[in-house]
Specification:
By secondary structure, the protein is an alpha+beta fold. It has helices at residues 3-54, 61-64, 88-97, 123-173, 187-252, 257-285, 295-310, 327-348, 383-394; strands spanning 70-75, 106-109, 115-120, 313-318, 352-360, 363-370, 398-403, 409-416.
Length: 420
C-alpha cells in the first residue's frame, strides 16, 4: 500500500470518528430539545381533549390541520385507533426520540357521535433532526473531500521530489556521480537537493582521488619493483658474478699461495658486501627486527639509522611500560613512523625532529614534530599521508596532522588499546 493510500485511510478514519462524535452530540442535544417539545405537545393534546369533550363543534379540521407536533385524526365508525409506524431512518429516530410519545394518544367519543384520535406527532421533530444530521454529514463529507484533495496535491508534490531523488540515487548507484538535483521548490526540497548535490560532488571527488591514488600506487609499485630489480642486478648480481669468477680463479692458481690468499680475501669482502646488501634489502621489504625486538627498541634502531643517513638530529622519548601489541599493530606503527620520517627528509627541510611515544589512559599516543619550514596543508593528501591515514584507521586510531608556514609539521596518532 502506498503512502498516499495510508494517509487517506488515516484521514478517513479521523473524519469518521469526528463525524460520529458530532452526531452523538447532536442526538444528545435533540433529546433535551424533544423533552421540552414533548411537554408542550402533551399540554396541547390535553387542552384539545378537554375542549372537544365540552364543545365538540369547536374541534374543526380546518383548525387542527396546521398544528405542529399534534395530530388530530377523525375515525370512521367501527375503525380502531392505531399509531402509524415509520420505517428506515425516520422510524429509528422516532423510536429513539419519541419512545414515550407513541403511547400518549387519546381516543375521544364526542357527544355528537364522532370519534377522534388526538396524539403527539413526532414527524416534524424527526424531520428537523434528520435535516441536521444530513447537513452535518454533508459538511463533514465536503471537508473530507477537500482534505483528501489537498493531501493528494501535497503528497503528489512531495512524491514528485522523492521520485526525482529515487531516479538520481539509481543513477548514482549505477556509477553516474555527475547527477545533480534542481534546488527549487519549498525550503525542505531545496535543502534536500543541496545536501544531495554536496554528497554526489564529494563522491565524485572521492572517486577522482581514488583513481589518482590508484595510479600513484601503481607507479610506486613499479618504482619499487624497478628498484628491487636494479638492486638485485647491479649490486647483488655483480657481487655474485665476482664471487663466481674468483672461485674459478682459485682452481687456476692453486699452486700460487699468495694469489690464493689474495683471492680468498676478495671472496670474503664480496660475501660481506653481499650479506649487507641482502640485509638492507630484507629490511626495506619487512622489518624483521620487530619479531625479535620490542617496539621501543625497534623505534630506537629506526631513528638511529635514519639519523645517520640523513644527518638530521632526531630525539626519541619512549614512555615506560608500553603495552604488548600484536605483530600487525607493531608493523603498522613502525611503518607509520618510517613514512613520517621519510616525508620529513623529503619535504620538511628540518634540522631537528622530536618523537614521543607514550601510554596514558588506556591509549597509545605517538607524536612526531619537526622544526622545518612547514606549509599550508594541501587540500588533497599525497600517497605518503594517505598511507599513514590508512594505517591509523587499521589501528582503530585517529591521525591528525598540523602545519603552519615557518612552524614545521606535527603528526599526532591517538590509538585506543583493547582492555584484556
Amino acid at each position: 500500500m502506498s503512502a498516499l493510500w495510508r494517509i487517506n485511510l488515516w484521514v478517513c478514519g479521523f473524519f469518521a470518528l469526528v463525524t460520529l462524535a458530532c452526531m452523538g452530540l447532536l442526538v444528545h442535544q435533540a433529546l433535551a430539545d424533544v423533552e421540552r417539545e414533548l411537554q408542550s405537545a402533551e399540554a396541547v393534546v390535553g387542552y384539545l381533549s378537554e375542549t372537544a369533550e365540552r364543545d365538540p363543534a369547536s374541534l374543526q379540521p380546518r383548525l387542527t390541520r396546521s398544528l405542529r407536533h399534534v395530530r388530530v385524526r377523525w375515525l370512521a365508525p367501527g375503525e380502531t385507533a392505531r399509531l402509524s409506524e415509520q420505517n428506515g431512518i425516520d422510524g429509528w429516530l422516532g423510536r429513539l426520540l419519541f419512545a414515550e410519545a407513541r403511547h400518549s394518544a387519546r381516543v375521544l367519543d364526542l357527544k355528537d357521535g364522532r370519534r377522534v384520535q388526538i396524539a403527539v406527532d413526532p414527524r416534524d421533530e424527526i424531520d428537523e433532526v434528520w435535516d441536521s444530521l444530513q447537513q452535518l454529514l454533508a459538511l463533514c463529507g465536503l471537508a473530507l473531500l477537500l482534505s483528501l484533495l489537498t493531501i493528494r496535491w501535497a503528497v503528489r508534490r512531495g512524491m514528485g521530489l522523492l521520485d526525482e531523488l529515487l531516479r538520481a540515487l539509481q543513477q548514482v548507484s549505477g556509477g553516474q556521480l555527475n547527477v545533480r538535483l534542481r534546488a527549487e521548490g519549498v525550503p525542505e526540497a531545496r535543502q534536500l537537493a543541496s545536501h544531495f548535490n554536496h554528497m554526489t560532488q564529494a563522491l565524485e571527488h572521492a572517486r577522482a582521488d581514488n583513481a589518482h591514488l590508484t595510479r600513484t600506487l601503481l607507479a610506486v609499485q613499479e618504482q619499487e619493483r624497478t628498484h628491487l630489480a636494479q638492486t638485485l642486478h647491479d649490486d647483488l648480481g655483480q657481487y655474485l658474478a665476482g664471487i663466481r669468477a674468483q672461485a674459478c680463479l682459485l682452481r687456476l692458481v692453486a699452486d700460487q699461495p699468495a694469489t690464493v690468499e689474495r683471492t680468498v680475501r676478495d671472496l670474503e669482502h664480496n660475501c660481506e658486501h653481499l650479506h649487507q646488501g641482502f640485509r638492507a634489502l630484507v629490511h626495506d621489504l619487512y622489518p624483521v627486527m620487530l619479531q625479535h625486538l620490542s617496539l621501543a627498541e625497534a623505534f630506537g634502531l629506526l631513528v638511529d639509522q635514519w639519523q645517520m643517513r640523513q644527518g638530521i638530529e632526531c630525539q626519541l622519548r619512549v614512555g615506560l611500560q608500553l603495552p604488548a601489541l600484536t605483530t600487525s599493530d607493531k608493523t603498522h606503527l613502525y611503518r607509520l613512523l618510517q613514512e613520517a620520517l621519510t616525508n620529513i627528509a623529503r619535504h620538511a627541510d628540518a634540522s631537528q625532529v622530536r618523537i614521543r611515544l607514550q601510554h596514558r589512559g588506556g591509549r597509545l599516543r605517538l607524536l612526531v614534530r619537526d622544526n622545518g619550514r612547514g606549509a599550508q596543508q594541501p587540500p588533497q593528501p599525497g600517497v605518503g599521508l594517505y598511507s599513514m591515514q590508512e594505517r591509523a584507521r587499521s589501528l582503530g586510531g585517529e591521525l591528525r596532522v598540523f602545519s603552519r608556514p615557518g612552524a614545521g609539521w606535527a603528526l599526532a596518532l591517538n590509538m585506543p588499546l583493547e582492555v584484556s
